[in-house]
Structures are given as structure tokens and as C-alpha cells.
UniProtKB/TrEMBL annotation:
Any single Pfam family the record assigns to this protein: Aldo_ket_red
Residues holding substrate: H106
Top-level taxon of the source organism: Bacteria
Protein name: Putative oxidoreductase/MSMEI_2347
Organism field: Blautia obeum
Lineage: Bacteria, Bacillati, Bacillota, Clostridia, Lachnospirales
Molecular function as annotated in GO: oxidoreductase activity, acting on the CH-OH group of donors, NAD or NADP as acceptor
Amino acid sequence: MEYITLSNSVKMPQLGYGVFQVTQEECERCVLDALKVGYRAIDTAQSYFNEAQVGAAIEKSGIERKDIFLTTKVWIEHYGYNAAKASILDSMKKLRTDYLDLCLLHQPYADYYGAWRALEELYEEGKIRAIGVSNFYPDRLVDICSFARIKPMVNQVEVHPFYQQTEAKKWMEKYGVQIEAWAPFGEGRGDMFQNSVLNEIGAKYGKSAAQVILRWHLQRGVVVIPKSTHIERMQENLNVFDFTLPEEDMASIAALDTKTSAFFSHDDPAMVEWFVNMVEERKKN
């Protein structure tokens, strides 16, 4: 495993296992499989509704808590100081842990400054080892880095060969924020796994397109959290530390950048309204 060191000197595995869209029925088994094959970083979130299953799997795995890097994220409806702090403590109960290795604010909307103060306080109390944000575009990131008491240590954003976030990555580096990729494969959109450039590169090293993508991320200094519900694919995704992409291969992949999200834009007003409506609907349930 390769590690990166965050701005506060905390070491974080550069390759972890993400449980976005892993159902409650499958989650415990999947996390146990991931830990069995060698993953030591697990990424979940309040909005995934599977924190309890992640916690149960970690407890059943028999692996010492100190050897697992555990991340969760605060959802928008829990923003504001009091609500965020209560929700984080509740997440820790679900995860069966008395501390988090990393806690992120999941979206750049609503009272994220109030929520950030809760993260700062829990960080200073030692209940969270590192704090950060997710989906913060450069303007929002520079804002919170400039005006918050403690700067975010991580920003988890959409990054993959078709949306490489080169400019955003420069701003993160300027402020000492580690870039982390959600959807490191772009969920296969745009026929990514069938892309001829990625497959031709993979053929040279006896690797799949997915393995080439993960190696490309790692060499760019990006933290990745690929998701799979199949243990064989988990093993394949972990088997990316025995080869290196030379500069010409990295350049070929760089040329695939469309500079366009494969999903949605967080600064699109219609998308902001979509998030608002989601929060309102959840309040009714």
C-alpha cells in the first residue's frame, strides 16, 4: 500500500474501499471482503445509509481499529453547528467507534460554516483525526480555506480520466488540501472501460483498463476509493502497486480529459434546487 501524508501529518492510505450505492443487505459482507483482501481504508457517508453495516463489519473483521482508516461524511440536512455535531456523534455510534480518521462535509450548500465549526471542535477534542470537505469547487474551497479557523485537509471530488480536475487540483495544492476521487472510474460512463487508449496501455503491462486508471490516479497523487461488490474485482483493484506508467502513458491519458463532469455540476442552479428538494423530501419522511 502507498500512503499520503495530510497537512496535519496524519497518514492516509492512497487506495481505499468506498461503499457508495452498496445496499444495506450487501454492505457488511462487502466491507468484510474488502478488509479480507487487504484494504485498510473504508469510506462511507451519512447519506449512504450503511454506516451501521460498515461498523458491524469492522467489528467482526477482528482487525484492530487503529489499523483501519475510517471516513464518513455529514449530509446537508445536518448542517449548522448543533445538528452537525450531534449527527457526527450519532455516526460514530453507528460505526461502533469512538473516533473517526476523517470526516467530510458532503456538499457545499446550506450552513456549511456552522457544520465546519463542529468539525473543528471535534478535531481539537481528538474525536476526528482529520477534517475536510467534498464537492467544493475552487471558489468555495478558497473561501473556507481563507476564513475558517482550521483549513480542510481533504477535498473529495469527481475525478477520472474524462474529468481530470487539473485546475481544481492546482488550487487544492496551493492551499495544502489533499485531492480525493469519488467515482475514480466515472462509474464506467462514456464506455471508459472499453476505451482504446486505456486498454492499449493496459495490454503492455498485463493490466485491465480499471487497473491502469487506478495507477494513473495514484501517480497523480490522488487518493482513490473504488467500489465493487465482487471480491475478485476488489482484489484486482488492489493489484496496482507492481507497475508504473511512464510519462508517455500518463500524457496519453491526460489527453482523454473532456473537462466536463460525467454526472452534474454543483454550481448549476437547477442542481442546487435538486439538492434542496431532496433535503425537504427527507424531512417529510
